[in-house]
Amino acid sequence: MKICHVVGARPNFMKAAPVLRALRSYPAIEQYVVHTGQHYDFNMSDVFFQQLEMAPPDINLQVGSGSHAQQTAQIMSRFEAVVLERQPDLVLVYGDVNSTVAAALVCAKLGIRVGHVEAGLRSFDRAMPEEINRLVTDQLADMLFTPSADGNANLAREGVSPEKVHLAGNVMIDTLVRMLPAARQAIPADLPERFVLVTLHRPSNVDNPEWLDKLLEALAAIGRKIPVLFPVHPRTRQHIAASESSLASARGIRLMDPLPYLQFLGLQTRATLVVTDSGGIQEETTFLGVPCLTVRENTERPITVTSGTNLLVGQDLQKLLTEVERVLDGNVKQGCVPPLWDGHAADRIAAVIGEKNVLAVAKG
Ligand code: UD1
């Protein structure tokens, strides 16, 4: 059985790594990796392959950046050629980025089976490009691996047949668990005792200059109370450069380039508080028991709010500042780790795929 893994953007790499590893235990399975090239900077891509001990991708489609339609279309036309040539038995796609939906659509049209890892998550906000990617990918997938039970409920409501859906747990937490010791070694010695770790890259936060300026002013206000460490995503960097805010010179704010996986995870373990609009970081902070304030009106990962340490502050900057104060005063939301976020989600995925392969061989 030939399995093709498709990855493209930063949050895909830590999800694919444990699945690749787990499938190595099945000798009848051959696997290879196609990188779409959606992310291409060294510190958005290559460094993750190195740190996660993944072999370099077998194929790189080198699509680069573009509008959603351009990027998705480029991935589709280049990936279709690969699928036609290599004829995989199963294509695994990860998360909710443009690479995910593009590959799923190619396979669905060619009658190639697709497995979606991190299926079923919903923000119920179609203004988010990722929500469109999730809805379409899950309708097309033949095997859907969910990280938590809310994913199964969403898929059932959308009419996805339950036989296709497997509650596997969270593969990103598999990587976190495996890499945590190395991440602790990667913590810089000159880290402040207490600090706020910030990441922002959602179009809803960074593409609107007026809103971004207000957000940056709020960060500057936080920086006057406690050091703020802010690794800046390339999308955000472009917009901060054009911003009227003087964040770069604001006291207490340390802007830096995007960090490699280990360095960022190391900082999360030591952060007093994380302020983010990322999806994955809401999950990582929940696992680590670190307070997280999410600058979004909704989340596709509600379990991080109901069970974990996450709180949505929406686009209410007064609420953001009030909640920061509360954490600094020691009023920290306690959370617990959701079921199946145990470091073995990829083993469960591999077992399902391996079992199906055995059945296919037996039948055929
Ligand atoms: C993408 C995903 C988002 C994910 C994020 C993680 C989609 C729709 N969005 O958003 O879900 O949370 O990745 O990072 O798939 N750029 C670089 N270097 C790179 C990559 C991008 O400079 O290596 C710049 C380009 O100017 C590009 C911009 O960043 O136009 C945005 O990149 P893009 O891949 O379109 O979306 P992200 O915002 O990274």
Verbal overview:
The protein is α/β, with parallel strands linked by helices and 364 residues long. The protein folds into two domains: 192 residues, 3-Layer(aba) Sandwich (Rossmann fold); 148 residues, 3-Layer(aba) Sandwich (Rossmann fold), CATH 3.40.50. Helix content is 47%, strand content 15%. It is built from 15 helices and 13 strands. Strands 3-2-1-4-5-6-7 form a seven-stranded parallel β-sheet, with helices on both faces. β5, α5 and β6 form a beta-alpha-beta unit. α4 packs parallel to α5 and α7 crosses α11. It is globular and about 60 Å long. The mean pLDDT is 95. Bound molecules: uridine-diphosphate-N-acetylglucosamine. Uridine-diphosphate-N-acetylglucosamine binds next to α1, α5 and α10.
Q: Which outline best applies?
A: globular
CATH superfamily name of the largest domain? Glycogen Phosphorylase B
User: What share of the residues does DSSP label as strand, in percent?
Assistant: 5-15%
Q: What does the largest sheet look like?
A: 7 strands, parallel
Number of domains: 2
Which percent range fits the helix content?
A: 40-55%
Encode the helix/strand succession as letters. Answer: EHEHEHEHEHEHEHEHHEHEHEHEHEHH
* CATH hierarchy: architecture of the largest domain: 3-Layer(aba) Sandwich
- Low-confidence segments, ≥5 residues, pLDDT <50? none
Distance from first to last alpha carbon: 12 Å
The residue-averaged pLDDT reads: 95
SS content category: alpha/beta
Could you tell me which ligands this complex binds, including any ions or cofactors?
A: uridine-diphosphate-N-acetylglucosamine
What is the alpha-carbon Rg in Å? Answer: 20 Å
CATH class of the largest domain: Alpha Beta
At the fold tier of CATH, the topology name of the largest domain is Rossmann fold
Q: What is the number of beta strands?
A: 13
Strand order of the largest sheet: 3-2-1-4-5-6-7
SS element count, helices: 15
